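Bug #2210: token dump truncated for ANKF1 protein?
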Amino acid sequence: KMTQQMRDLQLAQARKPPGPSSPNAAKRLYRNLSGKFRVNYTSFDEGSLVGRGEKEKLRKSYLFQSNAALFEAVELQDLDRVQEMLKHYSPEELDLNTPNSEGLLPLDIAIMTNNAPIARALLQAGAKESPHFVSLESRSLHLSTLVREAEQRVNELMAQVVNEAPNADCSEKEKQLKAWEWRFRLYKRMKAGFEHARVPDAPSSVHLSVASSTSLQVTFWEPLSVNAAVVTKYKVEWSCSPTFSPLLGEAVIDKLKDLHFTIQGLVSGTAYHVRVSAYNMKGWGPPQASTPPFAIPSNWREYDGRAPRRRGQAEALDHLLGQVKTVHQHCICHEPCKNQPQSRKHSVSKSLKHLFHPGSKFLKTLKRGLYLTAIFYKDDNILVTHEDQIPVVEIDDTYSCLLMQDFLWLTKVSCMWDEILWLRQCVTVSQSSCSCILQTRFKMLLAISQMQGLLGIQDLGQVFFEPIKDKQGNILIVTLKEVKTNQTFESVRWVPICKLQSGRKSVSSPEEPTALDTLLISLQDKLAYHQRSSHALSPGLYLGYLKLCSAVDQIRVLVPEQLPNILCHVKIRSNPNISREEWEWLQKMASVEEPVPTEPETDRSQNPLFQELQVAIKELMTLVNIPLQEAKDFRLYSQEVLDFGDQVSFLLLLPPSDDVCTAPGQNNPYTPRSGFLTLPLQIFELGEER
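Reproduced locally. Full output below:
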């Protein structure tokens, strides 16, 4: 109501000559009259550094005005204005936790007027209560003093207004009187709010879960009743005794954006009891015990003492690569190219001569063969040659069909773009007597080197999961890379993607487009795929669905289009850890060959993981278009939990053994809905590693 009155008054003042001041104006007048600003800004010596001093003076004046405006918005209970200021200014710019001349902070005013929405907005921004209120008595005394002084000032001004004749000074006194009357009412409302408040109830719920072998996760919810005062902090306590005597530790949480806390440094295998209590300006409320009443820090690996699958793998691969390099470092292949016999150069096939010619450049058209193109993009722009062509180089002009194994080999090479020269030199050793496959791969390495040299860029990005083919016999391998910074290049330039697509003149018919035309038409789809394949899952435990299909030369895996580097999945919970007790239950269920739980059972209703799995399985079956009754024949993979770092883990849901992989020509009765695609298994594995 006060806010609406303020707006009405401001509109009225805009239409007519100045009249009686509004509460807003009275507030500003009060601050000018009080003479007790929080900081004495004129105390700085600005004589020595005039320019610098003026800037500092302006900055402090700006900060002071922002802080005063925030106090004003809180006092007038203008939620929209408070939210707008918190959105556009940092806590430092607003001076959020520095008391004003009355010893109050914005949060103090909000909670003592019981304005819960503004108080919550301030708390999420990092606001705190005034440190001057060390006890209930000190807060009560401070409020009584403010009320008494404001009432005394109102009486003094009222007497002056009544006794003085009407003049300019009298009009000014009337404005002061209105300002102090408004402040007197504010202080009385704050005092009444404090007196009527009581300590908050206990948190409505406290959930305890095992976060790791040495930590527990505590999640809690606000009390159902805060008893006329906003909760400003919580206290988490833990002990090995259900009576909490002795108390092993406690933590006070005053950042209330997320109501959870992780207790670190616990002993694995020890039971811990946890409780949480809430605090408002009247003190701490009663504690709420957790559900379950205790938890034991553990991890599923403790069940059989299993080591992490990937432990030491990266180091082992680096060591192996180092050994290979050591073996080849004295080979003749690592002599500079200029020292090679002249006859060697002349033996290079016609299709590769342009690599060594000074006029070597990008191709404009395709003439039946195998080609490499590199797509570099930034926002809505793409790198093109000076002829407005996508960079393309030839791999082999006699290659009529791309063998999948060659393509998959190239995708692995994309993990070590910086080693192309070394790989090319090593392949050169036995090129004369090598197989056709090795010849093709050598040409792939030459084309990569040419692309890197022409662009001046080593990292060509990620290989798209399938090459583009046309009816003219062209095969186009595409690499994709997003450029994060503003870079300039000598042989290429940035152009808008839409301009490139609209400006290209196709030389093929719509019925039989060339590979380059197909690339331009599907460019946005490929860029979207590349961006999605780099997205990461939020922390948590997930249920993944493993479905494969085989072809003559490859195995493909079903993935969602929105996240093609991860199996089809749904989230089970935010806590990624599987405790030892939970893993024991899963092992027991697998050992007796029980079906996947899809219907509730009374004797398991107290098992949180069982309930979470029921919900996740139903959601996943709906996602991949499989009738729920068919899930009876599905099984959970019980050999291990798939850990992706410390924050993401997976349980796998497997179809019956005969249906895990669909054979060529075999119909899949349960076709997933739109939004899925199948990737070659090797491509999926590389995307997962990225």
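Output looks complete on our side. The longest strand covers residues 272-280. Marking as cannot-reproduce; reopen if the truncation happens again.
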